[in-house]
Each structure stands twice: as C-alpha cells, then as structure tokens.
Request: fold
Amino acid sequence: MRELPEYIDGLPNICGDEALIEETLHAARGKPVYLPESGIDFARIKSACAVALHMQQPLIPAGGDDLATAGIISNLQYMMEHQDIGDNHNAPVFHWCYKRIGEFIPELVNEGRAPRVMLDYSGVLLHGLRQMGLDDVIDALKTVTLDPRYRGKVEWLGNTWGHAVAPSTPVQDFRLQVKAWQHHFAAIFGLEALTRVRGFSPAEMALPNHPDVAYEFVKTLKDCGYQWVLVQEHSVELPGDGRGIEQKHLPHRLVCTNSKGESAEIIAIIKTQGSDTKLVAQMQPWYEAQSLDRWQLAGKSVPPLVSQIADGENGGVMMNEFPPKYFEVVRAASGSDVPLMNATEYLEHLFAMGIEEQDLPAVQPIFQASLFEHFEPGSGPEKLAAAIEECKRRDHRFHMDGGSWTNNLSWVQGYDNVLGPMERASSHFNEVVLKAGVPTSDPRYRNALFHLLASQTSCYRYWGQGLWTDYGREICRRADAILDYDF
Reply:
C-alpha cells in the first residue's frame, strides 16, 4: 500500500487522499481482522472484559505572550514549559502515560500473557506530540500497532480529529472531523493499520439525540467505514417506552431516524456508568465480568462483555494505580474463562457463531421516545421543531443537547460566546471552500481545515468560561482570517 506523508507544508496530513482511504476501507469491509489471531476459545469462556484509554490534549494559541499572534501549540507543551502553574507539574507523567502502553504490551506478551487494550487518541494530541518532538511516544505506539506480535492485542478507536463533540458540531464539519482523523492516522501508522480501526469513540462520550443530528452522526460513521460506536449507558433508551437498557453487557443496534423518516443504524457497544477513571485504573470491569456467566442472544449462549473507557492520563489513580493493576489483571485473566478482549475481536467471535447484526436488540438516543409521542418520523423538520418545543414545555428535563460522560453537562447551553464564532467559521468555510469546490489537496484547504477543526475542540467549553473560551474564539478568528485572505 502507498504510504502517505505525515506532514505537508508543516501541517499534519489531514486531507487530500480521501478517495484512496475510502477505497482502502471499502476493500477491507467485512473481513475479520482480529479473529484469526485471537487465540480465545469463545465457546469456553463465561464472560469477558474490554477497557479503553482515552487520550487528549488540545491545541492552544499560547506559543507567545500575545493571544492574537501566539503560535498554536499543544497544551502539553505549555504545561511542560510552565510546570510551576497549577497541576502543570504532571506534564512529564502525562508524557509517559501517552507512551506506556507501547511498553506494557511487549513486556506482557514476552511473559506469555494475553493483554488487551483499546486506544483512543485525538488528532490534535497526535499532532501536538510530533510538534513537541516527542517521537518516542509515536515510535512506542507504532510498535504495538504494527508489529505482528502485538497488533492483535491493541485496538485503536476512531475519534474526531479536533476532539469535537457531535451534538454541537455542524454535521458537515463532524464528517470532516471524522475523515481528518482517519487521514492523519493513516499518515502516521499506515493504511493497513487504518483498516483495523473498526470502532468509534465519540469525544466526551457525547451522543446526539436530536433526530436529524443523530441520524447524520450514524450515517457519517457508517459512510466512513466504522462497524460500531461506543455509547454511554444513560445516553440511550429502548424504543417504544424509553426505558433504560437491561442487558447492557451485550452489543446493541443504535437506530436513529430523522425528521424525513430516514433511518441509519450502527452497532453500539455499551459503556456502563460509573466513576470512569477509578473503574479503569483499578480494572473493576474485569472483576464485574467475573461475577457474570453466559447469556442468551438470538437463541445462542454467548459471554457478556463488560466495557469501560476512561481518560488514560488524568488523575492520580490513572497515573499511579493503573500500571500495577493492569499487569496484575492481565496476568490473572490470561488463559482464564474471563479474558480481556477488545470489542471488535468480541464481535468477530460473535458473528462467527452465526449471530447477525439484526439479531442485536435496538436502542435509540435518550428522550426520543417522549419526542415521538408528539412527532411522527417523516413529518418534516418544521413539525419536529414544534414537537421539541412542546416536549420542553411539558418536561423541564427534556432536551436535545445529547448525552455525554455526565447527565448534567450540556455542550450547548451557556457557550454562545464560543459556539457563535465556531458556527460562523463553519459557515464561512462551507461558503468559501466547500461550495466553491476547492480541492482537498490544495494547501489553502488544508490550512483552513486545520484551523476550523482545531477551533471545535471540546476543551474550549469543558473548562468553562474565561481563558479557554478565549482560546476557542481566537482560533475561530484565525480560521475566518484565512478564509478571508487566502481564498
């Protein structure tokens, strides 16, 4: 396969070869990638456990004292250079956290163990690590991604390049975000490695629940070749009565229907609720899996999969407690009837039994059952908008802001001062670049896209009003300036 350059004109390679990537992914679709080397007797095990580590550092205009002219650098670089401020002294530990799976997996495999882990790194983090010269991190990750001895143990999950949250990112930009991450990943790790990225991890676990946005979310993932998506337990409900899901340790089908009556669906792996960092750091999902036995699915006996994701670097428990606990559990789980498995590996075993995607129970985004009491899918966007307002009037808890890590965090309310500039930059890009048909290989396209995608990073809202919203608005300003003067 042809190799893509990782950088072009000083910018990460996030666009220009979309046709090649689409052709590569299409050719690999439906072919098992983990099953041939799995080594797990699926008929014998009673349950399994999957853990994922999410890694993210935003890009910020902080490479200088003047916000309007400061270079765009990784927040990790700023932390490294200002370790006397707040918790910035953790920066060297973060550096190790981004690298250490590349050390843990070979050590455990060389012991004869069967480690598993899923990795979710944002594109802005991967670029920031390269920009800082932390090639040791990328090299360690390449080892476990590409070496035949280790690559079956580590599953990469797709993300949005700029760590943009789906509910409040314009749908055409969300698609650009997803494609840019795939492009950048292929440029770093190769096209063959990209064919093994079958699952998607939404930034902040944010799942849209507005019918039209949710439909576009699923359609984008399917169009980009993804087989499954990780969803938060409380961000979905059962169709019809809106109850919570019951068999949360089995895969489901996330079905999303828009105002025109069109439906799109994708497999959903359910991440259970809880204090995510502590649960993964102490490998609690494996202990929960030990208490379970095989369940019935489509008339067959299958092992449940307990799935969990957490930040891979944030908090003392992840920094300090995860490494020894991970080693302890991998050693105990290897060869046992409760192994660690990655999600795609699990699905491939499931389908090899004769179970099909349509056999999986359906779920839909939260609050849609309430909404569909007042709206018939297919009635159009105007009637949908009226039904949403009626539902808000009847129930103060009702919203269409999506669901995420927590029940009480909105990615929309209270952030007009950063969402406004973001939406203007998006509209500007759409008018000047997309509608004009500027080729994705054009250097001007890449520069504008880099700034647009970086401006949509969730951190500019997650950390609240103040400096972080200033960062977001400034990158939006730069995106607008590029669109004004370069096109």
